[in-house]
Amino acid sequence: MTVWVGTSWKMNKTLAEATDWAQGLAEALAGRELGGVQPFVIPPATAIGAVAQVLAEEPRVLVGAQNAHWEDAGAWTGEVSVPQVADAGARIVEIGHSERREHFAETDETVRAKVAATLRHGLVPLLCVGEPAHVQAAGGSGAHILEQVGRALEGLAEDQLARVLIAYEPVWAIGEHGRPATTAELAEPFAALAAAWGSRVQGLLYGGSVNLDNAADLLGIPGVDGLFVGRTAWQLEGYLRLLEIAAGR
């Protein structure tokens, strides 16, 4: 079983900071067995090329993009396309993060179009789904995320689905002010995801206030195939420790 451990840096790190982090990772992993762990890192768009170039010496680490447009080219000022991020070295595209849904008006329809574009160009879609606090409080987490996933992956063939990663990130648990979820709170959503999609997609990941204290417990939840990590992994030491935890699960 592959255990995915990745991080998105959001709108953080200069080129120098990104390059230093990537170089440190490459050096730390040189000659080291990963124990079934698949590392990935998703820098800001400005650093994709630089990070990919550094990690060319450690190709086991996948580099990703935090967003890409559904069209291959055109009059889309400020956007980047899947071919462009692939050209920069990305092999994964993060799609549908709750911050993009909230602040940049992403919808289930645009998320579906981006998933399709990512697959069309041979990259891995990392589909992010998650419910707000009021849905979770009402006991509707499972139904909410299954609806999101169903709309995003509608119409895909089984061989396409087999390349998709799903990251469950409850909105109430992510970000600087997020509340870490308990394993009991995550059992039902992951049971629902695993029953509907676990055998069809490449992996089911959890993201939301992941830290060094709860990572092992999160990886022990039935249905969880990996972790999608924020702040804890922005410092290289934290990310390396997460890789060790995942390898020793």
TrEMBL record:
Gene3D superfamilies given in the database record: Aldolase class I
Domain of life: Bacteria
UniProt keyword terms in alphabetical order: Cytoplasm, Gluconeogenesis, Glycolysis, Isomerase
Reaction equations catalysed: D-glyceraldehyde 3-phosphate = dihydroxyacetone phosphate
Database matches in SUPFAM superfamilies: Triosephosphate isomerase (TIM)
PANTHER family cross-referenced by the UniProt entry: TRIOSEPHOSPHATE ISOMERASE (PTHR21139)
Subunit structure: Homodimer.
Family: Belongs to the triosephosphate isomerase family.
Name this polypeptide is given: Triosephosphate isomerase
Organism expressing this protein natively: Kocuria oceani
